[in-house]
Every structure is written in structure tokens, then in C-alpha cells.
Design goal:
By secondary structure, the chain is of the alpha/beta class. It is built from 18 helices and 17 strands. The chain folds into two domains: 250 residues, 3-Layer(aba) Sandwich (Rossmann fold); 206 residues, Rossmann fold, CATH 3.40.50. 49% of the residues are buried. It binds 6-O-phosphono-alpha-D-glucopyranose. Belongs to the glycosyltransferase 20 family.
Length: 474
């Protein structure tokens, strides 16, 4: 599916692409394929669709691949200068827009919008302009372009100026902040982000809640008009339709992958490490501020304190994989997770029982092993666009799993009925939910797991992707 200039009929644009490159010691390159909803969604359109994935060079290895002209067929990696990328990605995307949408600021001290913000914002403009130009160069007449996430909020409007013939969609994988919080952004930036997304024909979200928040921001900040049915925003004579496409788990892929030999090996190892017969409370996340891993550990500690009968009978398996380590706050958070796990092990551990099994090296096969064995899954984010772990665990569970789920995760809209739902800030309630999950009768747990798996797989990535294309029409 080699797509040449001006030939692609379907284009996807995202910061992180399907493949990443690493430089080897001898100056060569190795590549690594990623997974996720976009990868499996795109595969649903088949190899002959003239599709192209435009993504950014994220690392020195990626930039080297661009220099050498190495690349996957069907993808176009663009390299902006490293300092521009770093300022756009770390400064604006991950420290500003991510923080606003997940409501992560500690507001007495942050945010501070000063000169360094100003130069980071200029980099974000440059990086978005580079994407818009690449898409304009690569797209065939009337092509459909699906722009992804908060890294690329300005692209729809910039691209529309360059290529008014294109059909443009924007999809947010994060929550959207309510207007009072969104207004923390400087007025000019808040307006630029909203008008950037409104450059699309359709702006789509994972849940109705996030779509409504976006519409409320448009009304509040821009004075835009919302249609009576709440499905479209009109601003300066142009109308942008709103869409909701929940993303579900990829059941076929997961069930096949979770039964390969490497997962079976990890199951044996995990059983040996946690001890026979012990209940497992499992969580798997990027070590991400919004995932609320620290409060999860506090809740587990409280469980052991308030319900001492669980001591020696349960292990908290916490897989917290490295993320965004260029940012000091993420490094500090990672250290806090490790410190707290150690503190709990020191407080309660015995000669043959380690209460918390924390692993920070990324291993997908081991994650699947933990999914299969979990008696309880803990998914307690402060805010989350969807959270696929909540959907994946019930799909591959061997013996049924009780799901403790934050009411601030997008998955809550589809999964609340059969989960034990919690306010993610409330450690007492989370500890009690863990206790209820551990004591849930087996038959009830099995029934709930079946219904959770059905809800989790109702919208597979292929449908999620094709529905968006359909909705763009043409
Ligand atoms: C979230 C975002 C994605 C992003 C992912 C990993 O799920 O919505 O756009 O790719 O986090 O973050 P990273 O910064 O490593 O790409």
C-alpha cells in the first residue's frame, strides 16, 4: 500500500505512529511495531484502500530513519527539529493540554503562562503546521483525513485553509475539560485550540460526556451556537458536527494473543512469585499521573489495615510502565509509586508474603498473564478518556474478575452496571470496594464478568474506525 504524493484517499494523522526506530551500536536501525486501537482500526479497511498514516519522528532513531528514507509502506513520518518537537510534545501537549483535560494542575502554584510557555506555544504551532502541510501534500482530491488527539488540535483549521476539498475529522482520545477548567488556558490559546478543532467537519469523542464538555467550551469561550439537539456547533458561519465513538477491546486479537506460550510461561512465573492460592488485585497502567496509582496503593494499604483478614491471602500486582520520563513530574511520580510500594511491603510483608508486586519494565505478555489471573482489577483513574484495561481484563479473564472502576473513566458509561464504582479521590471507598470485590460470590462474579466482556467488545476497533469514516461521508 505504498502511497505517493497526492494519492492517499484515507489519511490518519497522529503524534505516535505505528512503528518506532532505535539506533543500534553499529549505526543501524531496529524497528518496533506498536499496537492499539488505531493500528487494528486501520487494518479493517484492507490493503488496497490507498491509506496513509502521517506521524511524527519521536526519537533520534525515528529521525535517523527519516534521514535514511527508511519507512513502513503506508506511513509517512515527519521530522521537525528536535527542539521544536520537544517543546510541542513535552511543553504543550503533555504538560498543558493533557493537564487541562485531565484536570491535573495543583492550582495554587500552577499553571504559569510566561515567556517559556510562549516559546513552547510557538513550537506547537510550528509542529501542527508541519502536519497540515504533509497532509495537504499527501491527500488525493476529496480524501478523508482523520486527525487524532490533543497533539494536533490546530491541524483541522490549518489543513482546511490549505485544502478546502478535504473531508476532515478530529478525534479526541482524552476527556475534554469543562469550561471553568478549560478557561485556565490563556484566552488566545483557548480560542486557538477550539477554532483549530472546529476546522474539522466532525469533532468526535469517546463518550457523550466529553463531547458535551467540548460543546460547552465552544459556547462559553467562543460564543459559538450549539444546535438544539446538541449535535453540532456553529461558529463564524461554519458548522462542525459532533460525534461519539466509544472504543472497545479487540477481542479476537486479545483472546488469541493471551493464549500463546509466552503468556503461559508468565502465568507460571507469576503464580510462583505471588504464592499458591492467594487472591490477586491487578492493575496495569502507564506510570501516568492521571491513572491514580498512588491513591490505589493507599487504598490497598487501608484494606490491609482495616480488614486484616486479607493479610497473607492477597497480593497487589501493580504493573506501572514507564511513560513521559522527560517530564520531572512523571519521574517524581514514578519514584513515589516505588517508594509507597516498598513502604507497604515493609509494613506488612512476612517471610513468605510480599503484599505488593510492583513491576516497572514493560512486558505485554506478562500483562496478559496478570489479566487472565486477576481476581480483582483496579482501574481508578482521576480522569480518563476511556481506559481500555477496564475492557480488556474481563475479555481474557480465566475465572472471572471483579472490576473496581472509577466513575471518572470514559469506560464507566458502558461498564458501570457490572463494576464496583468508586470516586477515585476517596481512598476509604476504594478500600471498601476492594474488600467487596474480594468477597463477591463466585457465581455473581462470573455473571458480571460475562456482561462486562459483552459491553467491552460491543465496539471493536474496526467498527470504531469504519463508523468514523462513514460519518465523514463522501
Ligand atoms: C494517551 C493519548 C495517546 C498517547 C498515549 C501514550 O492514550 O491519548 O495519544 O499516544 O497516551 O502517550 P505517549 O506520550 O507515550 O504517546
Amino acid at each position: 500500500m505504498e502511497a505517493s504524493q497526492r494519492a492517499a484517499r484515507i489519511l490518519v494523522a497522529s503524534n505516535r505512529g505505528p512503528v518506532s526506530y532505535t539506533k543500534t551500536a553499529d549505526g543501524g536501525l531496529t524497528s518496533r511495531r506498536g499496537g492499539g486501537g488505531l493500528v487494528s482500526g486501520l487494518s479493517a479497511i484492507g490493503p488496497d484502500a490507498d491509506a496513509l498514516w502521517v506521524c511524527a519522528a519521536l526519537s533520534e532513531g525515528d529521525r535517523e530513519a527519516v534521514r535514511q528514507g527508511v519507512g513502513e509502506p503506508g506511513s509517512h513520518m515527519i521530522a521537525v527539529p528536535p527542539e521544536v518537537f520537544a517543546a510541542a510534545y513535552n511543553g504543550i501537549a503533555n504538560s498543558t493540554l493533557w493537564f487541562v483535560h485531565h484536570m491535573l494542575y495543583q492550582t495554587p502554584l500552577e499553571p504559569v503562562f510566561d515567556e517559556s510557555f510562549e516559546s513552547e506555544w510557538a513550537a506547537y504551532e510550528e509542529y501542527n503546521a508541519a502536519f497540515a502541510q504533509a497532509l495537504a501534500d499527501d491527500a488525493a482530491e476529496g480524501a478523508a483525513v482523520l486527525v487524532q488527539d490533543y497533539h494536533l488540535t490546530l491541524v483541522p483549521a490549518l489543513l482546511r485553509e490549505l485544502r478546502p476539498d478535504l473531508r476532515i475529522g478530529h478525534f479526541s482520545h482524552t476527556p475534554w475539560a469543562p469550561p471553568d477548567y478549560f478557561r485556565l488556558l490563556p484566552d488566545d490559546v483557548a480560542r486557538r485550540v477550539l477554532t483549530g478543532v472546529l476546522g474539522a467537519d466532525r469533532a468526535a469523542f469517546l463518550t457523550r460526556r466529553w463531547a458535551d464538555a467540548f460543546a460547552a467550551c465552544c459556547v462559553d469561550v467562543l460564543g459559538a451556537t450549539l444546535s438544539e439537539d446538541g449535535q453540532a456547533v456553529t461558529y463564524q458561519g461554519r458548522t462542525t458536527r459532533l460525534g461519539v465513538h466509544g472504543l472497545g477491546a479487540d477481542a479476537d486479537f486479545l483472546r488469541e494473543r493471551a493464549h500463546r506460550d509466552d503468556v503461559a510461561e508468565r502465568i507460571t512465573a507469576l503464580r510462583a512469585e505471588t504464592g499458591p492460592g492467594r487472591r490477586l488485585i491487578v492493575r496495569v497502567d502507564r506510570t501516568e499521573l492521571s491513572k491514580n496509582i498512588v491513591r490505589g496503593l493507599h487504598a490497598y494499604r487501608r484494606l490491609l489495615r482495616v480488614h486484616p483478614g486479607w493479610r497473607e491471602r492477597v497480593v497487589h500486582v501493580a504493573f506501572a510502565y514507564p511513560s513521559r520520563q522527560d517530564l520531572a513530574l512523571y519521574r517524581d511520580y514514578t519514584a513515589e509509586v516505588a517508594r509507597l510500594a516498598e513502604e507497604i511491603n515493609d509494613e506488612f510483608g512476612t517471610a513468605d508474603w510480599q503484599p505488593v508486586l510492583l513491576r516497572m519494565d514493560d512486558d505485554f505478555a506478562r500483562s496478559l498473564a496478570a489479566y487472565r489471573l486477576a481476581d480483582v482489577a483496579l482501574v481508578n483513574p482521576i480522569r480518563d478518556g476511556m481506559n481500555l484495561v477496564a475492557k480488556e481484563v474481563p475479555v481474557v479473564s480465566d475465572n472471572g474478575v471483579a472490576l473496581v472502576l472509577s466513575r471518572e473513566a470514559g469506560a464507566y458509561e458502558e461498564m458501570a452496571a457490572d463494576a464496583l464504582t468508586v470516586n477515585p479521590y476517596d481512598i476509604r471507598a476504594t478500600a471498601e470496594a476492594l474488600n467487596a470485590a474480594l468477597t463477591m460470590p463466585e457465581a455473581e462474579r462470573a455473571d458480571r464478568t460475562k456482561r462486562l466482556a459483552d459491553a467491552a467488545t460491543a465496539l471493536p476497533p474496526s467498527k470504531w474506525f469504519l463508523d468514523q469514516l462513514d460519518a465523514l461521508g463522501g
